[in-house]
Write the structure tokens for this entry.
Amino acid sequence: MSRTIGSILEAALGPLVVTEPQSLEPYGRDESSLGAFPPEAVVRPTTPEEIRIVLRLCAEHRVPVTPRGAGTGKSGGALPVHGGVVLSTDQMQKIYEIDEANRLAVVEPGVITGALQQQVEEAGLFYPPDPASLDTCSLGGNVAENAGGPRAYRYGVTREYVLGLEVALMAGDRLVLGRRSPKGVSGYDLTALMVGSEGTLAVVDRITLRLLPKPRATAAAIAAFDDLAAAGRAVIAMTRSGLQPAVLELLDGASVDHVRQGSAYRFPEGAGGVLLLELDGDPERLEAELAACAEVCEACGAMDVRLATDEAQRRRLWEARRRVSEALEAAHLHKTSDDIAVPVGEMPDTATRIAEIGERHHLLTAVFGHAGDGNLHVNLLSDDDDAEDVARRFEAARVDLFHHTLHVGGTLSGEHGIGLSKRKFMILEHAPQELEMMRAIKKLWDPLNLLNPGKLLPDPY
Ligand SMILES: Cc1cc2nc3c(=O)[nH]c(=O)nc-3n(C[C@H](O)[C@H](O)[C@H](O)COP(=O)(O)OP(=O)(O)OC[C@H]3O[C@@H](n4cnc5c(N)ncnc54)[C@H](O)[C@@H]3O)c2cc1C
């Protein structure tokens, strides 16, 4: 009888290998709601050398490998759709160094993002990328997805902070990419290529991250408008005025209505669009800047503006924003969510188009997201019983949404990645030659198509 990949890996790595069906089950899911794909085995390495052993053995036996961080991905990137082995980095949580003089950190990929932020801040430094999942997601997953978050508006996404990576290739080789210096323009930027490659090119086993000085103070404000388009116009006005909040978040009326109850901030009746903004920097200048932001919102017709200058007030303003996604999930039978990004100037029109798309397909919609950089989380909702019919309408509405998004110069995903959920739509955004170029890159790094197959790239036609 031929040996299973589980027994082959067990012979090499012993207790790091999981094969009992019950224990495998959680590794077949993530936060994408795309279903369950249990792997044949899970390996939880503790060192880069063990990662190389897994990859080498799987390549030798032609078994697919799906890298996995903390499994919080929203696009199905960590789902082992072709079975095989899940390589989980959840045991690799060492922070090797926080170098204050050079303002950098070196970490293992399984480190939870919030844990690094906390340690870095204790040293008076700052790691800005702040996905809303920061208490549960891993830095390896953030690198693979090029994760963003509310602060991306001012500070950029994960890519801006990755100085260097050490990665393992499917053939078992290890590459050291990038540098520790803040600057560097030597050759093709393979570090940048790895960021956002969704675990399809190599497995990240060590990450060097750039850090910033910690801002001395933070303040927040909330502004409510009649409708989403008015809130969108305030975002454009804010951008034009030269004001640069660290965070500029948006909720539409449907989102507000789902979190209104129990919210510390009393949303005005009829609020159809809400902006939540946060500023950071020198305490001496913060209050004046906050007042200037409030003025812009008022000039754009805000019906209510509240300022929060202390930490407790700030947390209260954020609380409703943090609850939106789960409140929508809890309130409806069916929900799908897409994180499109459009140029900021296109947001007011996009808001109108999303409402039209919902009406056309008889679906409810709720929109929230990172307004400062045009990254909207568009939720399609339905309470109809016929699940198949709802799924068909969701799909048709998504196609309309993507067509609009691309027509105005946007993109399929601002931060959650393509993974499984959007790979078939890649042909809408990328020309055949561009996709061929991507396929050629994939082939160079992973000639046997064993590393996270069935993700990111559409099937060849
Ligand atoms: C409530 C909630 C809020 C969220 N908010 C945000 C947000 O604000 N911004 C945002 O960007 N995302 C957000 N996300 C999505 C998700 O948290 C991010 O995509 C995150 O970066 C995934 O990290 P992870 O460790 O969970 O990765 P996983 O889900 O385990 O994996 C994601 C991808 O990374 C690959 N991967 C993981 N580790 C490695 C590695 N070491 N080497 C190579 N490839 C690897 C996997 O193969 C997969 O393709 C949110 C998710 C939830 C559930």
